TrEMBL record:
EC numbers for this chain: 2.3.1.137, 2.3.1.7
Subunit (UniProt): Monomer.
Organism lineage: Eukaryota, Metazoa, Chordata, Craniata, Vertebrata
Residues that hold CoA according to the record: 428, 432-439, 513, 564
Location(s) in or outside the cell: Endoplasmic reticulum; Mitochondrion inner membrane; Peroxisome
Protein name as annotated: Carnitine O-acetyltransferase
Functional note: Catalyzes the reversible transfer of acyl groups from carnitine to coenzyme A (CoA) and regulates the acyl-CoA/CoA ratio. Also plays a crucial role in the transport of fatty acids for beta-oxidation. Responsible for the synthesis of short- and branched-chain acylcarnitines. Active towards some branched-chain amino acid oxidation pathway (BCAAO) intermediates. Trans-2-enoyl-CoAs and 2-methylacyl-CoAs are poor substrates.
Length: 635
């Protein structure tokens, strides 16, 4: 376990939620503490395998609000058959328990494979989240470069804590969390494959990289960020280097090679093979993959009204706006890309396979705080070598792949509607005053908003962290419950009394919080069901009928795919919907306001990110009004 000193220094333990320091993350030791990470990791519990019967019962309960009665009757029979004594469910459960005994985490490797590496849709929009920061205080090239230089210095400052194993441990309540994801996000990259991708992490190699990659006008540069004595370049030195890069790439590259990474993974996998046949290309790609992270110095996007500014910024972070804007100024396979626009628009995009949002946001919070530190007077600087431009030999075949990728990303960028909505009436403060979990309150507002638009409830996904367990990733909080369905149905019914509605709301919020507690302690149903299915495949058994059932497909058709990603900075993460007629909803509840990023696909006539955002606003306002009109609700 981590030493007592790390806990006391961090001093972050609290009743629930992932706890973070309120200011710049400070290392727990001034020097390297070798072995501290592993000692901590080994002290974490292993992810449990929930009891089979418990999952089966909870699965049926989760289906109740989203399937028809006759479907449910049919599924109940399948589930009974599946879980009966001596049946296939029992066999798979035993297999899973055995796997849990032989691995560090019975789920994580399967999960990364199924959710990310075997998923063949483009990582852009479909998998990689974007993150929008508030606009920074610059609007010209020198300002852009100065800010970018500070940002690089801030990331390197954070990296020192990772390298030295002095990063403060995070807690959920009193429980320490797995810190592995922090060790996976720098110097790593996804590699496209023909059927399945992989991820490499060069931080763990015997020669970890000393460089980052800078992309400007679709051209890639390798920028060494450490001096020969191992000290990091200062912000002033980085400024000089970034200026050299910008001077060396004044025009937009007509063949922006990075656009290939926006493609469908099978196509990119094939194009990748063609690309790296050439030795120069292979070396350039390798430099990008090995880089600590990528910095994208973006050109300005079209000017929009202040009302639309954050939504356009979200599009820039999510997909770059298309080939005519900044989609080619990226390497979307890179785990971490910071984006600094010419007009003060800043943010990031990250490839999801190695990590969830919270560690990325913690890093970004630190970096933003770091950039706010007053500038130090420039010290005298020795001459630094010119950053190395990465060259690519573009054959006609590669040119064709680039043209096809341009076409695909332009279509995809057109197909996504993304709306950033700042809900300014209240934040976490109001639900807290009513002794309700703010997250559960927001989720119930989403349920109400959806019901008001479609007159039924839908399968809803909210990510729950499994980081209380070693190498834990996520499970699903199913926000649509019988309690939420009863609440949303009653809410606009004039025949129901306010007191009854408020009670139903309280029930629904409590049910959501109970599901959350169950999920973060490894007792939710979704990853367990996935594990049972994977176990069947592992044992070469035919997939049990319960997984071929229409109700199972319905349960996984998440028209609402949601996630809370809280931060200190007034930012918001964004991601695309996971089904064609669905919504992606990410939110950051601050004390007195809530930042929402809502996405939908324009090809679907039924959905509209703007309309859902408005409906959520209405639902939140109406829910508070109900509480105010029902004084007893305020405990
Ligand atoms: N009365 C008063 N206050 C309450 C309360 C109640 N009944 N319930 C909770 N609160 C307080 C909490 O103490 C906390 O206080 P803080 O603002 O001082 O931190 C705050 O309200 C937030 O709690 P809550 O809204 O319940 O959410 P949470 O912080 O427990 O988070 C999850 C819930 C599900 C988001 C979290 O457990 C989780 O798993 N996060 C990770 C999700 C993830 O990985 N997303 C990324 C995917 S890419």
């Amino acid at each position: 376990m981590w030493g007592i000193c790390s806990r006391t220094l961090v001093g972050m333990a609290k009743t629930c939620g992932i706890a973070r320091p309120k200011h710049l993350v400070k290392p727990v030791s001034a020097t390297r503490v070798a072995g501290r990470y592993l000692t901590h990791q080994r002290g974490l519990p292993c992810l449990p395998v929930p009891p089979l019967q418990q999952t089966c019962e909870r699965y049926i309960a989760a289906l109740e609000p989203i399937v028809e009665t006759d479907e449910l009757t049919h599924t109940k029979k399948l589930v009974e058959e599946f879980q009966k004594a001596g049946g296939v469910g029992e066999r798979l459960q035993k297999g899973l328990e055995k796997r849990a005994g032989n691995t560090e985490n019975w789920l994580s490797e399967w999960w990364v494979k199924v959710a990310y590496l075997e998923y063949r849709m483009p990582v852009v929009v479909h998998s990689s989240p974007g993150l929008v920061l508030p606009p920074m205080n610059f609007s010209d090239k020198p300002g852009q470069i100065r800010f970018a230089a500070k940002l690089i210095a801030g990331v390197l400052d954070f990296k020192t804590m990772i390298d030295n194993e002095t990063l403060p441990v995070e807690y959920m309540g009193q429980k320490p969390l797995c810190m592995n994801q922090y060790y996976e996000v720098l110097s790593s990259c996804r590699i496209p494959g023909l059927k399945m991708d992989s991820v490499v992490n060069h931080a763990k190699s015997s020669h970890p990289p000393n460089h980052i990659i800078v992309v400007h006008n679709g051209q890639f540069f390798q920028l060494d960020v450490y001096n020969s004595d191992g000290t990091a370049l200062t912000a002033e030195q980085l400024c000089v280097q970034l200026n050299k890069i910008c001077d060396a790439s004044p025009e937009m590259n007509a063949e922006p090679i990075g656009i290939l990474t926006t493609e469908h993974r099978d196509r990119w996998g094939r194009a990748y093979q063609t690309l790296i046949k050439d030795k120069t290309n292979k070396d350039s790609v390798s430099a990008i993959q090995r880089g600590i992270f990528t910095l994208c110095l973006d050109g300005a996007m079209p000017h929009v009204s202040s009302e639309l500014y954050r939504s356009c910024a979200a599009a820039q972070m999510l997909h770059g706006g298309g080939s005519q804007w900044n989609s080619g100024n990226r390497w979307f396979d890179k785990t971490l890309q910071f984006i600094v626009g010419a007009d003060g628009t800043c943010g990031a995009n990250y490839e999801h396979a190695p990590a969830e949002g919270p560690p990325i946001v913690a890093l970004i919070d630190h970096v933003v705080e770091y950039t706010r530190k007053p500038e130090t007077a420039p010290a005298s600087m020795g001459a630094l070598p010119m950053p190395h431009k990465l060259h690519f030999n573009i054959t006609p075949e590669i040119k064709k792949d680039i043209e096809e990728a341009k076409h695909s990303i332009n279509k995809l960028a057109q197909e996504v509607e993304i709306r950033v909505h700042v809900f300014s009436h209240f934040g976490k403060n109001v639900p807290k005053a009513y002794k309700m979990s703010p997250d559960a309150f927001i989720q119930m507002a989403l349920q109400l908003a959806f019901y008001r638009m479609y007159k039924h409830s839908c399968a809803t996904y909210e990510s729950a962290s499994l980081r209380m367990y070693r190498l834990g990733r996520t499970d699903t909080i199913r926000s649509a419950s019988s309690a939420s369905a009863a609440f949303v149905k009653a809410f606009d019914d004039p025949s129901r009394q306010n007191k009854e509605k408020a009670d139903l709301m309280e029930n629904a919020v409590k049910a959501h919080r109970a599901y959350t507690n169950m999920a973060v302690s490894g007792q939710a149903i979704d990853r367990h069901l996935l594990g049972l299915k994977m176990q069947a495949l592992e044992e070469n058994l035919s997939v049990p009928a319960v997984f071929k059932d229409a109700a199972y497909a319905k349960a996984l058709h998440y028209r609402l795919s949601t996630s809370q990603v809280p931060s200190k900075t007034d930012c918001v993460m964004c991601f695309g919907p996971v089904v064609p007629n669905g919504y992606g909803v990410c939110y950051n509840p601050m004390n007195d306001h809530i930042n929402f990023a809502v996405s939908s696909f324009t090809a679907c006539e039924e959905t509209s990110a703007g309309r859902l955002a408005q409906a959520v606003e209405g639902a939140l306002v109406d829910m508070r009004a109900l509480l105010e009109q029902t004084p007893k609700a305020k405990l």
